[in-house]
Amino acid sequence: MKTLIIILTKIPDYRTDADEGANYFFTSAEFERALLMGIFILLGLIFILSVSYVIVVYKRIRRVEKTIFFEPGIFNYLERITNEKIRIEKIALEFHNDPYKNDKIFIRMITKSIIDAHNYFQGNMKLRLENFYLSTGLLHHSHKKLKSNRWYIKCKGLRELSEMEVIYFYKDVLKLCYEKNNLVNVEAILGIIKMKGSEAYKDVSGYRYPLSKWVIANIIESIKGVQNNRQFDYSLMLNSKNESILMIGIEMIKYFNLRNYEEELNYLRAVNKSPDIQKMLN
Q1: Would you say 126 and 118 are in contact if contact means Cβ atoms under 8 Å apart?
Q2: What do you get for the CA distance between the two ends of the chain, in Å?
């Protein structure tokens, strides 16, 4: 009997940590502390979300209030700009003395109004709008958008500068032709064409990257609206190593029925193996 007791006392304990943990329970005090901590965290999250929501709603209400407040003043500017009896320099001076000239919402609203009007009017009225845009420094607000990290802000800046034909920032717009984002690419290419017309074709001809068919179609439509298209030397495009630019050149020659390029087109028919190019040539 003594021998058996000795043997049993020498049997090792094979219980694992998991077995020990299975017998462990929170005490009442520990459970209360954990529960209170969870409640405090939940209340904190609810508070943060509530404050964020209130801020967003407040900003939206404030934006609407400012929009309603600024509308009469902006309409007054447009009315005076379209009145040819009032000098633009005088209106620009009033703008520089305007207490809201640095307000972001005001700047955004008046810039949009000026550009929309510029797209609508022709002749001298168009020139007056351009003069106001330049004299007031609104062009610099458009230029800042080109430096944004957001592609849609860049596109907006490109549209504004190209619509107002601000040649001063032509090089900055040209740089964005090589942006990684395709939508920025097409806006920049369309922008330089709108700014310089047929003079920009040299820069377009030197473009090295492939373009999608959608981009090519947009560029072609833009070129069709440019004055003095027939006077441009389309040989630059026909000699381009970029198939996309080559397609634009061929389409333009066909559209304007420029027969003086027939010899170069025949050469392309003989040497160029691209199915898309051959389809356009035949």
Answers
A1: yes
A2: 111
Please check whether residue 155 is in contact with residue 184, taking contact to mean a CB–CB distance below 8 angstroms.
Answer: yes
Confirm if 103 and 96 have CB atoms less than 8 A apart.
Answer: no
Task: Enter the tokens of residue 134.
Answer: 């330049």
3-state helix, strand, coil in the chain (%, to 5): 80, 0, 20
CA distance linking residue 137 with residue 146, whole number of Å: 16
pLDDT single digits (tens) 47-62: 888 788 778 877 777 7
Is residue 247 within 8 Å of residue 277, measured between CB atoms?
yes
What is the average per-residue pLDDT within 74-88? 91
Asked if residue 170 is part of any domain, the answer here is no
The answer to whether residue 37 sits within a structural domain is: no
Any domain includes 81: yes
| Total of domains in the chain | 1
Contacts of 250 (CB under 8 A, 6+ apart): 237, 238, 265, 268, 277, 280, 281
Domain membership of residue 75 (yes or no) is yes
State the pTM of this model. Answer: 0.71
- Per the structure, the complete domain to which residue 111 belongs is given by 62-136
Instruction: Write the burial class of residue 110 (CB in 10 Å: 0-12 exposed, 13-18 middle, 19+ buried).
Output: buried
User: Which residue did the predictor score with more confidence, 146 or 50?
Assistant: 146
Task: List, in order, residues 6 or more apart from 196 with CB less than 8 Å away.
Answer: 167, 170
Task: Name, in order, each residue with C-beta under 8 angstroms of 114's C-beta and a sequence gap of 6 or more.
Answer: 78, 81, 129, 132, 133, 138, 164
- The Cα–Cα gap between 161 and 156 comes to 9
* Distance (Å) of CA 6 to CA 3, 12, 13, 15: 5, 12, 15, 20
Q: Is the pLDDT of residue 3 over 70?
A: no
